Amino acid sequence: MPRRNAPLILIAVIFFFFLAAIFDYQPVWQFIGGQLSLPSAVLKPWRLGLDLVGGSYLVYEVNLNEVQPGDHDSVVNGLRDVIERRVNLFGISEPQVFISRSGDNYRLVVELAGIKDVNQAIKQIGETPLLDFRTVVFEAASSTNDSIKIASATPELVPKFMPTLLTGRYVASAQIESDNITNKPKVNLSFNKEGAALFEEITGQNIGRPVAIFLDNNLIEMPIVREKISGGKAQISGNFTFESARELVQR
Description:
Strand content: 25-35%
Distance between the termini: 74 Å
Shape: elongated
Oligomer: single chain
Number of strands: 12
Mean pLDDT: 76
Structural class: alpha+beta
Helix content: 25-40%
Order of helices and strands: HEEHHEHEEHEEEEHEEEH
Strand order of the largest sheet: 7-6-10-11
Low-confidence stretches: 25-52
């Protein structure tokens, strides 16, 4: 065989090798009804990114100066959870919200394909998450007040939430702890001096009744007050899983 044909033969061998490998790799193809077919995962429509459809690309620097080093990951993940909820309000298909970390510096990156009004995105996403505590008064279901109906022993009653001065600005920390007897998770809250005074007053006036916790005007927990709580430390217990308790702490 002439030496000059050797490169062509080598190319042909490599080509048929890769062709055989493709047909031998099952996830790439399937036989359906006796016919060769690509799997649904391959046939799934492409999601067009910012480079093709345009949109908003927002990068936020996360200020953790007042957060203990051991709580950095929890705080940042909680922030991402809040931002993801806000992004979903845009009705965007598969928005991208992720954390970028370089050393001790954290950044929150938000990609909004198709959203070209940057000011609108910044206004809706970039606001500080608002955590607040509200007292609860139950009223007849016929009330015209805007409230959230919940299942209870008296379904004809619905809760009306009354704002208080206690907000997330007074929360110093939140941690998960396991009960020594039941091993169930519970959430420990710690307030600063001003928050401790407010919390003591609120719990003293609502023994045996719930106090609701709202995040961005959405109810996330409604624990029952068992006693007047002094000292700025509180404990939320209930039917938590470790995942749900961790989510509450992050928020």
